[in-house]
Amino acid sequence: MIRAHGGPLGTARLRACPEDFRVDEQLPFQPSGVGEHCLIQVCKRGWTTEAVAKILAARAGVSRGAVSFAGLKDRHAVTTQWFSVHAPKACPALLPGCLEDGVEIVAATRNARKLRRGALGGNRFRLLVREVSAPRRAVERRLHAISRRGVPNYFGPQRFGRGGRNLQQARAWLLEGEPVRGRTVRGLLISAVRSDLFNRVLARRVAAGTWDTLLAGERAALDGTGSHFPVVAVDAPLRRRVAQGDVHPSGPLPGVGGDRPEGAVAALEDEVLAEEPELLAALAERGVRADRRPLRLMPRQLVWHWPDAQTLSLDFTLTAGAYATTVIAEVLETAAEE
After folding, report:
1. Rounded to whole angstroms, how far apart are CA atoms 238 and 225?
2. What is the Cβ-side half-sphere exposure of residue 258, based on CA atoms within 13 angstroms?
3. CATH number for the domain harbouring residue 104
């Protein structure tokens, strides 16, 4: 991963314990309070999102398919996230309280619609980074720069599995025909491939110094919306919006269809993606729809303090689909997750 703010300032330890990595999921809407779906807020520690979904299904007496969630949350963390359970009748088993050791229902209400993947307002992170070896002033200068300029919006290593095994399995499936069972697993493998290709394009833009700069022909992404629009010319008002963090350059999540950039931006993307023609063909064969993702990530409400000389406390909010580890990587080199 090519860094935008310079090399790491030192080393540190992330996730010394789950309580060092806290994530609170934010809904983009106000629950209606009525409807056929139970909307459940769960706090979990040491559990995967999928495992919690199965627990909720068993307690409610419904199939696993009746339980939905907006996104996956880390296992090695303390995370609060929302689930919906299709249960038209009253469901006393899904009231606030402890479900399992490390799984607690925090709140329960009703909603007219199920919770769909990606239906997130964002995530609030509260992190403790321990054993920091870097000078405090240098770390704080880097954090000030990040709060103003943002960071490259790389997909984090979690996306690719331990040691990149999701990518390895995806190649074996897509290119060699090795069978993969389960729609969920196949979806994760396709996501890993697209994320890796996006990261390659982003790395090229970081190397060129244009990851946070709009170019003519760009597809400009609106912050936090998933929408993008063509850039014919980069005028002063558009530059101001970029400086304010309202608009970002975007990169490809490869597939078929979708809107493409033009000119030099298209040429750069095509050059990078041409390194993997067989994977592109496999995505097209499976009808994966192309999309765009912002190249820049702006950590919002970024604050920090030092509980002691070698411990850094960080609080910030990221848009859905963004990785806190990507922010940390622009400051410190951290030990691999357990």
Report:
1. 17
2. 20
3. 3.30.2350.20
What are the pLDDT digits (tens) for 244-273? 999 999 999 999 999 999 999 999 999 999
Q: Is there a contact between 26 and 124 (Cβ–Cβ < 8 Å)?
A: yes
Clarify whether residues 207 and 139 are in a common domain. Answer: no
d(CA 166, CA 134): 33
- Given a cut of 50, whether residue 338 has pLDDT beyond it is no
Q: What is the pTM of this model?
A: 0.91
Cα distance between residue 252 and residue 154, in whole Å: 12
95 CB-near residues (< 8 Å, 6+ apart) = 105, 108
Q: What percent of the chain has pLDDT over 90?
A: 91
Q: Which two tokens stand for residue 181?
A: 């069972």
Whether 84 is in a domain gets the answer yes
Active site residue: 20, 74, 196, 212, which one?
A: 74
**pLDDT, tens digit, 9 for 90 and up, residues 112-121:** 999 998 888 8
Q: What is the CATH number of the domain that holds 201?
A: 3.30.2340.10
Q: How many of the other CB atoms lie within 10 Å of CB of 175?
A: 13
Please say if 212 is a catalytic residue. no
Both 283 and 315 in a single domain? Answer: no
320 and 276 in a common domain: no
Work out how many domains the chain is built from and give that number. Answer: 3
Measured at the CA of 132, the angle between CA 131 and CA 133, to 5 degrees, comes to 110
Range of the domain at 314: 11-18+125-147+300-334
Q: Measured between alpha carbons, how far is residue 295 from residues 21, 63, 336 in Å?
A: 25, 38, 24
CA dist 63 and 176 (Å) reads 34
Q: Flag whether 310 is in a domain.
A: yes
Please indicate, yes or no, whether residues 164 and 74 belong to a single structural domain of this protein: no
Q: What CA–CA distance (Å, rounded) separates 33 from 111?
A: 5
CA distance 278 to 296: 28
